[in-house]
Structure formats: structure tokens, C-alpha cells
What does this fold into?
Amino acid sequence: MKHNLLHSKNVPARSWWSFMLVQSTVFIRNAKKWAVPPHSLKSEWLDEPNISRQDLVSNFRDIALINRWFGGVSLVEKSLRPMLPPVSGMTKLKLLDLATGVADVPLALAHKWQSRYKLAITVLDLNPVITELARQAATHAGIADFEAHAADIFAYDFDFQAGPPYDFVTCSLAFHHFSSEQCLAMLGLMARLARRGFVVNDLERSWFGYLGAHLLGLTLTRHRLTRHDGPLSVLRAFTPAEFSALVQAAPLPADFSVKVKKGPFSRLAIVGQRK
It folds into this structure.
């Protein structure tokens, strides 16, 4: 004979409430467990050593489109805006972009600020094919004051003799490619390089971002690299709590104010401003 715990006349009210409490506790534990997608350490195809030039061109075209329309450029620009100096003629600023890709974010900043500031851009990326694509993008955008270097960020010989060599240092959609140790080293390096401030622009690991990346892959592109790496990038990325933990552990100078900032479309930033 089957019993229905919720309707049996033989079950006291106290037992019914105990049953509901147990079930609610189990539900809450499972909800917390699955509130954020599990972190992935799988490699993205973009990081493969023998990736073709055409695959790079197609993938970075998609990334530039996503940065432009889904919050990447706006998050960086709005984060840097409070650090801009007062306008006095055409004020010159120096910006360094690390792990630049095709430099779509710094080039977009140069375009947005062109009526008030003359932006001198330096970019670094490990892959010489990518830095060549960045130079072509700068030429196409009409940005003459532009340098691109193919180099290992952690081994590059920056000139600190006159203090921090750049006004701003940025890094977009690259932290989820690094190890935790490399992320900590990057934060310390960016603070040392920046006279005014730095911005790390990356993805937030969330179900919204993961499903959104799948949707973008199905609707905005047919390229296999973007469709594979987009959702995986979200799974390799960070939660706000994980970014905050990086900030706490990073070797940051005492004269920097650093915060974690959420952006639109599952974007996440670390913003550092020199006091």
C-alpha cells in the first residue's frame, strides 16, 4: 500500500514540516552547487601553436565584433574615463595593451577620444602573426602612433628608468588564458607600468554568459574556432569572488585603489587607479 506523505492522515504536521525542511535544504545545497558553471581547464583552439593565419583573422574578427557590441570596449572606456586628465589642447596619452589580439579595444579607445586626446598605442602579443594583424588594423583605422611587438609579456624589457612608462595599461579577454600565478604577476606588472591606472577586461563565469556564448556562436558566426572557444572561454573565466581573491593576493603597490567591477553581458573587470 503506497503512502502519500503530503496527504496521509496518519502523518503528523510536525513530520510534514520536517520533510519539507530536509527537501528545502537539499534543494538549496544543489542550487548553490550549480549556481555557477564548473571551472574548466580545457585548452582553447586559439592557443594551439600551429593555428592558421586565416583562422586567426576569422576568430579575431568575431572577437572584435563581440567587444564592440557586447560590452568589451564600453567596459574599458568607462573604467578609464574617471582617470583621464583635464583637457588642455590635444593632450597626449600613452597606452599599453597586453595580449592584444588585433588591438581592437585600444584602437576603439583612440577613435572615441580623438577629439580630446592624442593616444600613442603600444601593444604586445606572443604570436608574430597576430601582431602583424594588429599593425594592419591600426593602418586601416588611420592610427599612426602605433607600435606592435611580438614578445613574451613576462620577459619583455620595459623601461622603468623614468618611472611608469604608460598612462594606462589594459588587457582584454586574456586573463582566462593564464594560470593563477601568471594572473597575479600580470596584475603586479600592470600596476608598475601604469602612471594613472589599469583595466583587466574579461568574462564572468556564469550560466548567462555560457548560454549567451553558445547563442552568439549559432547566430553571429559560422567559424568553428569561435563556436568552440566562445563557450569554453566562459568556463575558463572567473567569478567576481575569484577576481577579488586575485586582487587580494596580487603584489599591488599601496598607492593603488583596486576594485572588481561587473559589466554588461557577463563582463568582469579589475580596475586599478593610482591614488
